Amino acid sequence: MAKDRAQSRGPKCVSESLDIENPEALLTYLRQTGRIRREEQPHFCNLHGGVSNRTVMVQRASGEAWVLKQALAKLRVRVDWFSSPERIAREALGLEWLARLVPHGSIPALLFQDHKQYLLAMEAVPQPYENWKSLLLAGEIEPEYFRQFATLLATIHREAYCRRADLEGIFADRSFFESLRLEPYYGYSAQRVPIAAGFLESLIQETLSCRITLVHGDFSPKNILIHRGRLVLLDHEVIHFGDPAFDLGFSMAHFLSKAHHMPGRRRPFVAAASDYWQTYRERLGGLPWAETLEARAVRHTLGCLLARVVGRSPLEYLAEDERLRQREAVLSIIGRVPRQMPELISIFEERLCPLSNG
Predict the structure, then answer these.
(1) What backbone phi and psi angles, to 5 degrees, belong to 136?
(2) Which of 115, 163, 123 is nearest to 18 (CA)?
């Protein structure tokens, strides 16, 4: 039954150019494909915030609510950035497998997917919920959420490693990760900042050489909804089998960038980021690769800190002077990269203080 729900059902009569953000077209699609009854009139609400998908909330009269996602071939950013919309199938795989690895309720349930229209539907997170990124930018720093975040990531990495015989083949393709992360973050940044090119190009090669466990690839506060004090993880389109250090660097860069952006809340952010790292290490346990992870996680943190101010997807909340300051702080560190995360956090904070009133 669950398997049937996850298979494509799109008939030939549905237009190849379906735009789910068009309410009339979406209604016709849902009726023609039998997803809803012909007399049913659900409420649609376009959801915003992401750059790589169209996302629409579908609320039915029964009270059931779905989120539909449709992958875009050209991302909604200022510079040209393309990725095959076939990655929607990868996200569906991520939804299915992550639900088996983490506690129930941490991942929305996959309802169905349509390969032809590059879309999927998942259960909507019940109201009320809040987006964690929005809370952080409002200065609300709840240490328990950082610990949950760390525990969730450690659980994914640990449990996937234990099931690597099953998962390595399923998630072996890293093309979406390369087109949506390695090239636009590290490759493009290397072109824009030649002085950092050696560091970034080495980081790309190091990342491609590692196949250790399942890597989410978009482990960020923007992809966390908080429902009744519990974190729910979204957006799995670049999930792959690779280097878990990327997830740590990607997420840590978000916390340190916010610490930079909000000098009045810098100390709590830095403390929470440190707690995040320590909690992750404790929850991960003594896996064979745990001891070599930290140095790579430090390098990915620096790479992502730089990429989020000069890459294809700059953080929208950083002002131009903040982007320049963060760029210079990273460039001052990559000549002598620390091997431990607490040291990096401390040095990055020190580099910011003389340049701001934080």
Answers:
(1) -65, -40
(2) 115
Kindly give, in sequence order, each residue whose CB lies less than 8 Å from that of residue 233, ignoring residues fewer than 6 positions away: 98, 102, 106, 107, 152, 216, 219, 223, 224
The DSSP line for 23-66 is HHHHHHHHHHTTSS-TT---EEEEE-S-SSEEEEEEE-TTS-EE
CA 291, CA 281: separation in Å to the nearest integer?
A: 10
Instruction: Give residue 10's pLDDT.
Output: 37
pTM for the full predicted model: 0.90
Q: Which of 166, 154, 103 is nearest to 293 (CA)?
A: 154
What is the tens place of the pLDDT at every residue in 29-58? Answer: 999 999 999 999 999 999 875 677 889 999
Residue 12 is classified by DSSP as T
In angstroms, the Cα distances linking 329 to 108, 260, 334, 345 are 38, 11, 9, 12
Tell me if 212 sits within 8 A of 246, measured CB to CB: no
DSSP one-letter string for 185-252: IIIHHHHH-GGGHHHHHHHHHHHHH---EEE-S---GGGEEEETTEEEE---TT-EEE-THHHHHHHH
Say whether 111 sits in a helix, a strand or coil.
Answer: strand
The 10s digit of each residue's pLDDT in 273-317 is 999 999 999 999 999 999 999 999 999 999 999 999 999 999 999
H/E stretch holding 340 reads none
**Token pair recorded at residue 148:** 């949950």
Return the residue matching tokens 């390695």. Answer: 182
